Amino acid sequence: MNLAALARFGRRFADTALGLIYPPVCQICGNERAAADAGFVCRTCHAQIRFIEPPFCNRCGLPFAGEISGAFECSNCRELELHFDHARAAVTLDGPVQTALHRFKYNRAEWFESFLARLLIERAAPELANENWDFIAPVPLHPVKLREREFNQADRLARRLAKATGIRHESGLLRRVKPTETQTRLSRAERAANLRGAFAAAGDGLEKARVVLVDDVLTTGATANAAAAALREAGAARVVVWTVARGTLRPVLACESAPNI
Length: 261
Ligand SMILES: [Zn+2]
Ligand SMILES: [Zn+2]
Description:
The chain folds into 2 domains: about 1-45, no CATH class; about 50-255, Rossmann fold (3-Layer(aba) Sandwich). About 40% of the residues lie in helices and about 15% in strands. The protein has helices at about 5-20, 45, 75-80, 95-105, 115-130, 145-150, 155-165, 190-195, 220-235, 255; strands spanning about 85-90, 135-140, 175, 200, 210-220, 240-245. Strands 1-6-5-2 form a 4-stranded parallel β-sheet, with helices on both faces. It is globular. Residues about 250-260 have low confidence and may be disordered. One zinc ion (ZN) binds near residues 57 and 77.
């Protein structure tokens, strides 16, 4: 066998091996074909993804399901002291995105990484291109949790967004200095208290910095807000938050009485 044939054989073998590990079937529904370049998510599942379109809250990005024109701020934001300039998400946290994010994060389903990152990049990259940014940084995990989970899903997404936009990726900009209990069952006030002092900026160099903070999901914004507060304290001039998905504790209801404009 000559070298070229050997290389062809090697490639075929690698493809087959990859096909065995990641069969070309949708990893969400398991019903339809979906190849690696489609992020292992089929067309039917793709069609269920809900991109966030206006109208949404100018500050936190919470989508509003009603007729409204112009910018507004939701009631959540009016009550909170926000340390980020604004938060945006690519899609709503439901359907295939919710499944993929959950499995990516908790079951280390790494084949969803490119699918999720692509959603983020599709929406974030054009917006970020309108301004100059110094860093893209992930919301960090506490070292104990990082050891448990073995990777920080936010950092994986941040790295991909940085690569797509050419903005400098800096995973060590923030540290999570306080382990926090899981937030899902806590009220908004409890979340904020839980997160007070949870983050610290890792070093100098943040004076007047413009930072894009990346996480997988934003729900109340309490985590991103605490992380943004630490960046501001260290001198950051501008902090915006980008997440793949936006969760709503009470879907859109939180905003329904909000826009008094
Ligand atoms: Zn599917
Ligand atoms: Zn808001």
